[in-house]
């Protein structure tokens, strides 16, 4: 048989079908060859180079494909002419049971203190001590938020009888601190 006959036989002769090596459920490496609106065409990355389609419904929404990308795919069905129908859903990120619970469970309400409660505490302090500075008001708000109204009030009531209300006393105490630092 001459070379021309071999070429003619190759072109027009019966194609030898290699038995397809895939079964449904197999995971095979594929190369994405073309992206289209309805999915992605691909070819297996082995000696058979079997073509297939990955329908858009079988591609996870958070998975971004590009041509020439090699990725593992699951064989869903083998169609006529040994074409493969494939899925990439095996790459879908599955939530752990704790993640599922955290999505279902409502977030705990944040600890809030009604503004009128803080304002009443500040008014009480101004009656006891006089003018309350903005810095002190913010400090009261932070302490009430951290401790809660009840606990703050309890500590206030325990501290108040022993506290020296003499402003000069506190001023001199501050001066002594600074003197010791010099």
From TrEMBL:
| InterPro entries, A to Z | NA-bd_OB-fold, S1_domain
Q: Give GO terms: molecular function aspect only.
A: nucleic acid binding
Domain S1 motif, chain residue ranges per copy: 25-89
Q: Which Gene3D superfamilies match?
A: Nucleic acid-binding proteins
- Top-level taxon of origin: Bacteria
SMART domains, alphabetically?
A: S1 (SM00316)
Q: Which residues cross the membrane?
A: none
Database matches in PROSITE patterns: S1 (PS50126)
Q: What is this protein called?
A: S1 motif domain-containing protein
Species annotation: Thermoactinomyces daqus
């Amino acid at each position: 048989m001459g070379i021309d006959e071999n070429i003619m036989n190759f072109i027009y002769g019966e194609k030898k079908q290699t038995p397809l090596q895939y079964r449904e459920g197999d995971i095979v490496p594929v190369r994405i060859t073309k992206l289209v609106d309805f999915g992605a065409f691909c070819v297996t990355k082995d000696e058979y180079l079997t073509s297939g389609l990955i329908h858009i419904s079988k591609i996870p929404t958070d998975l971004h494909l590009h041509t020439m990308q090699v990725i593992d795919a699951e064989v869903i069905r083998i169609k006529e002419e040994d074409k493969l129908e494939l899925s990439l859903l095996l790459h879908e990120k599955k939530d752990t049971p704790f993640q599922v619970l955290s999505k279902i469970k409502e977030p705990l309400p944040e600890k809030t203190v009604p503004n009128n409660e803080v304002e009443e505490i500040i008014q009480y302090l101004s009656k006891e001590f006089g003018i309350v500075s903005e810095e002190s008001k913010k400090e009261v708000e932070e302490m009430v938020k951290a401790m809660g109204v009840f606990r703050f009030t309890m500590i206030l009531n325990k501290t108040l009888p022993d506290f020296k209300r003499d402003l000069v006393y506190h001023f001199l105490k501050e001066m002594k601190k600074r003197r010791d630092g010099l």
